[in-house]
Amino acid sequence: MKLFGQVLIFLSVVFLVSACQGKKKTASLPQVEHQSLRHIDSGDVVGSLTPAGAYQWAGIPYAAPPVGDLRWRAPRPLAPWDGTLEALDMSKRCVQRARSADTNDDLGTLVGDEDCLYLNVWAPANAANPVSKDKPGLPVMVFIHGGSNVWGYGGQYDSEYLSTRENLVVVTINYRLGPFGWFAHPALRASAKSADDKSPNFADLDMIAALQWVKRNIGAFGGDANSVTIFGESAGGHDVASLIALPRAQGLFKGAIIESGYFTSHSMDEAENGVKKGAGWDYKGAKAVVAALSPKDGLDPAALADFMRSASARDIYEAAQENNETEPGSPLIIADNILLTAPSLEAALDNPAFPIVPVITGTNRDETKLFNITNPKLVKKFLGFLPRPRNKRVYALQAEYESATWRLRSVDTQARRLSAHNQAPVFTYRFDWDEEGSFLGTDMALLLGAGHAMELPFVFNGFATFPVGNGAVFPKSGAKERDALSSAIMGYWANFAKTGTPGKGTNGQSPLWPAWNADNDGPVMILDTASDGGIRLSQNSITVESLVGKLDKDSRFKNIKETCQALAGMIGWFPEIRAEIRRAAHTDCKN
Question: 198 lies in which domain range?
Answer without folding.
Answer: 24-357
